[in-house]
Each structure stands twice: as structure tokens, then as C-alpha cells.
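Reply to dn_fold:

You asked what the input looked like. This is it:
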Amino acid sequence: MNNSLEYFLLDCGLSWTLAKYLPYVLLLLAGGIGAWYLKKIQLKLWVRLSLMGLALCLPFACYFFFYPIYQPDLFNQPYKPGAFVKVPTNKATLAVVVLPGCPYCEGSVKTMNQLQAQNPKLNITYYLVSDDSMAKAAYKKQLDKRIGVVYEKDAMRWMLAAEGVFPSYLLFDNKQLKAAWHNTTFGVRALDYLRAYR
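and this is what came back:
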């Protein structure tokens, strides 16, 4: 999950990967500066070294506790869907398969809005596998105007393509499936891939 600092860095033009890792680097530098200042304190060597180690690691560890780095942030991990689905356009399309009431699906909105702003050529469409009109209206209200929300009539096929994991992200180009990610494998490396996709 991205935080406000990461979104600020993205707004400054950094890639998703840099926005994810730069705060860690800065906190390590801040910890190093703190440890360097503690080096001058006149204490027993073991106490001074313990305080220096704590000053070096504590900022990084606290940030990591609240905003950890997951394996998908290190590696781009697409999967191959077991069911065939198609989109109606030849344009490069990212199909985001969502359910109504799914908190992770709703959490994807800010990320998709940011991605749409970074890559306007990418056609992002939310495929709602339910005919819940309230859910559709809620997504439309939160999403960038360029991002579509549609009911999927063949909901079962899309649910099978998503393998029951929501949201799932399927990238199509010329109606051909190019890559797919589950919510648990969709990290900053995948986002940078989509950001640069033409």
C-alpha cells in the first residue's frame, strides 16, 4: 500500500520504484547522521555503540513496520489466467477486475488514478463482476474521468480469469492478453512497467 509521501514523490515525477525506496534511503542517511553525532558522546564503548546502532536502524525499522516492502515490489510477478477473457478494444487496456464491497478493490482507486495521469495512453477500465448499481456509481465517483467502469455480463469467466483474487489486473493490447497480476503480486515493478507501456 502506498502512502502520502510516496504519492508526493510520484507527483514530483519519480518512478513507482524510486518513490517506494527513496524514503528508506533517506531514513538510513538520517540514522547515519544521528549515529555519527552519538559517536562524540562520552560513554562506555558498548553503550555508545548500542545507541549508535539504535539511531542508525530505528528510523528505517519504524518506517518499514508501517510501510513494508513486499516481494512484488522487488520482482515483477505476473500470472497466466486459466480462463480466456477479451476486451472490446484494440487499445492497450488495463482491465481491473473488482467486486463490490471489496476493500482492496476500493483501495486500488488512488493507485489507478495516479497511473492514468502518468500514462494517458493506457486505457484503464474497471470490470465489476456484479450488477450492483451503487458500487458502480461509487467507483465512477472516485475514479479519474478517463477510467471506465463496466458491468461484466460474463462475470463467471472474469472471476475465473482473476482466479478469485480481487482486484486482479489484466493487460491487453490488440485484444491479446499481455500480462496479468493478482492483488498480491501487483507491486511497484508492475506499476513502472505499466507506466512506461506504449
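The longest helix spans residues 16-38.
Hope that clears it up.
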